[in-house]
Amino acid sequence: MTGTPTNAEIAQRLKEIRALMEFAGEPYFKFMAYERAAEAVENASPVGDLVSGGRLQEVPGIGKTIAGRIAELCATGSCAYLDELQARFPLTLLEVLSVPGVGMKTAQMLFERLGIASLDDLQRALDAGALAEIPRLGKKSVENIKRGVLSAKSRAHRTPLGTAAARAAEIVAFLAERSPAADLTPAGSVRRHEATVGDIDIICTSDAPDAVIAAFTGWSEAEAVLAEGSTKASIWLPGALQVDLRVLPAHLYGNLLQHFTGSREHNIQLREAAVRANFRVSENGIVDLRDGRLITCRTEAEVYATLGMAEIPPEMRLGLGELEAARDGTLPAVVGLGDLRGDLHVHLGPETTLEELAAAAAARGYEYLTVIGAEPEPARAVGERFGVRLLTAADVGIRADGSLAAPDALLAAMDLVVASVRADLDLPRDEMTRRLIRACENPYLTVITHLTGRRVGGDSGYAFDHEAVFAAAARTGTALDIDGRPDRLDLPGSLARRAKEFGVTFACCSGASNVADLAHVTFAIGQARRGWVTAAEVLNARPLAGVLAFAGAKRTAASHAGRFADP
Description:
This protein is an alpha/beta fold and 567 residues long. Helix content is 44%, strand content 14%.
């Protein structure tokens, strides 16, 4: 790792420690602590900021020892404890452990007897028939491992949420038409709106599960069937994407959906809370441990209510305090797609007309649409024909010194101004922080979009002091966009949650340049919900007058302070 490691990089190191600890025979409670910490880090604010601010141990699941190792990773990019484990066991053993059908004991036996320490080693041993030498590995077990290798190769590949969500919708539509399935619902990381997806989980109910499974495994898009049983099956799609299907009776739908939606940490915490309340929770129902009674739930709300909690939105089920909030009545009513009154970041693309955008906005029930690249008079005239106010906006770059790359006269003529960092991405952290704060102080700037500069599955963005910029945005009345484009998803939910603590106003926008991409606002809402953002905190959940007042208030305040001169 170079520079301060990202949350994803730190989480990966923690997962490596966890796996190698188990391989080394460490106690369960010790290595599971690292697994929980890894999941907490993935969904936390930037760990570098938490370490420097002395707040790392405030993150649920991170105690003194693990916090010390994370701090070491942040400071040096490495960790002595991980180095010690790697000296005993190759890190590539994690590849073997990722194979369904290969448990810890089997992996240890393969390593000790055949020297299998990687996925390639395992594939070669399978091709050579060497696994026949291993006791207790019968023909069926070896076949399962062969299929598991395919599955592991799939899971090693992360698919962007936009692609996975579209695939999930295809599968749901196919099964709805070709099988006796009901309650078809994507679950797992797709439903939680994770930025990338390891595999797709689909759950459904049916009185004829065999027919549903047969239709699923017979889908023409499937390249391979990885597993097939009476109530569950897995297939492999082009692009190394695994899809898992689970079918149960209708009266278990709530139990099933809840079980397969929450993150691992959420579900662990839920099970522990259930046990403390004398219940045992699974996809097959809730067992009351006091009398053995089985409680089945048609809805997720019933599952949580049985445990004395409010229903938790899917995107919030991350194991980051939501269970406590659901229990004590402090869970916020997060923003939903139906709360939006418009979209503040849409481009007039070369193959899209104002009429098409206005018609699409009206069809979505919007009161207004901000169209970048539109002229004021034509936009107003077209909007009036469709009953939608088409606002105009400039979309400009933020220069290295924090000024906006457009003259004041142009900015003043626009209803709104949207800006982002587009060049000089390698500025030192302090300079980038000053740059963004100065941009917030520009009286014309309404919204900063894709603040961190990250690309999903690619560049993690540039370094800056998030909290200083959040404070500046709140102080100056500058909204921070949650960009719904699947390759952006920026601000991510973890940062949105931290930003709201400073009183930041958000915008949830599509970033669309055509009619179809207006739907990307769904992904913006997903990140907002992961960040516990409410409708009251979202600028484009306000009526038109509220949006114009927000932009106007900043200009008026700056005018009174004499701050309109271009630097």
